[in-house]
Amino acid sequence: MDIVDGLRGTGAVRSFTNDRVDHSTIGRILDLARFAPSGGNRQPWRVAVVEDLNIRDRLGAAMQPVWDEYVAMSALGVTPFSVVPPAPYEMTSTTPGNTPNLMLSEIASIPVVLAVAADLSSIAMMDKDLDRAPITGGASVYPFCWSILLAARAEGLGGVITTFASRAEKITGPLLGLPENHALVATIFLGHPVKQATKLSREPVTSFTTIDRFDGPTFTM
Ligand SMILES: Cc1cc2nc3c(=O)[nH]c(=O)nc-3n(C[C@H](O)[C@H](O)[C@H](O)COP(=O)(O)O)c2cc1C
Questions:
Q1: Smallest CA separation from ligand 1 atom 6, residue
Q2: Residue 215 falls within a domain, yes or no?
């Protein structure tokens, strides 16, 4: 696959055919993804290929309330779980409650479920002492997650990165045997796409790029 096509056209895939994905395919995907960059090249990722149906069901059950909360907050126009306090809002009775999510309710039938963890002891969290939530550490593991999606596409597969399980880490961590000082950073679903969206909707460069400073003049191409 051409790298430009990969970058421009690897959309989220959430519906999969029943075709299975064998270990050698998963192995090839991870074998490409491992070339992702990380701070100090410390490669802090760990991957659990979740196959056990009981673990999958319990993972899906732990993620569902997070999804419900996410949808409810989105419906109120709030960025869910933002570390920036939103303007006051109220959960109203019209706020959606239990929202079906086929990836979670049918997690048993998804061809590949990968839980990705990061070893916090190998991550230089450059912004950890600032008066805001740290974010830089994610840069040592999310390129790896994105490379998994790109490598999957090269195999004719599609998938999606999710982070619901992190919010429920008190349940999902022990369920997955998350080691000490590790964070669960993503659950990635993969499979043969029912449909691969390749025309993605993204803001233009000029909407987010300025010269010299973030309050500088708009960058022109
Ligand atoms: C960090 C991260 C977390 C995400 N979490 C979820 C999720 O929990 N559930 C989900 O369905 N999609 C999730 N996505 C997928 C995004 O919704 C998707 O990338 C975005 O809407 C763009 O979709 P498109 O590439 O098909 O245009 C996540 C993506 C990222 C990068």
A1: 162
A2: no
How far apart are alpha carbons 68 and 125 in whole angstroms?
Answer: 31
pLDDT at 102: 87
Give the number of domains in the chain: 1
Residue 95: predicted pLDDT? 55
Beta-carbon contacts of residue 126 (< 8 Å; ≥ 6 apart): 136
Q: Cβ neighbours of residue 42 under 8 Å, at least 6 residues apart?
A: 119, 122, 123, 140
CA of 11 to the centre of ligand 1 (A): 9
Q: How far apart are CA 89 and CA 203, in angstroms?
A: 28
CB 67 within 8 A of CB 60: no
Estimate the crossing angle of helix 142-154 against helix 23-33, to 10 degrees: 130
Q: Looking at residues 63-84, what average pLDDT do you find? A: 92
Residues paired with residue 34 on neighbouring β-strands, in sequence order: none
Q: Tell me whether residue 45 is in a domain.
A: yes
Boundaries of domain holding 151: 3-84+91-207
Q: Which two tokens stand for residue 197?
A: 């969206």
> Which atom of ligand 1 approaches the CA of 160 most closely?
15
Q: Is residue 220 part of a domain?
A: no
What pLDDT is recorded for position 139?
A: 98
The single residue listed with the structure tokens 């659990």 is: 48
Distance CA 112, CA 73 (A): 29
Tell me, yes or no, whether 221 lies in a domain.
Answer: no
Residue closest by Cα to atom 21 of ligand 1: 12
Q: Kindly report the CATH number assigned to the domain that includes residue 56.
A: 3.40.109.10
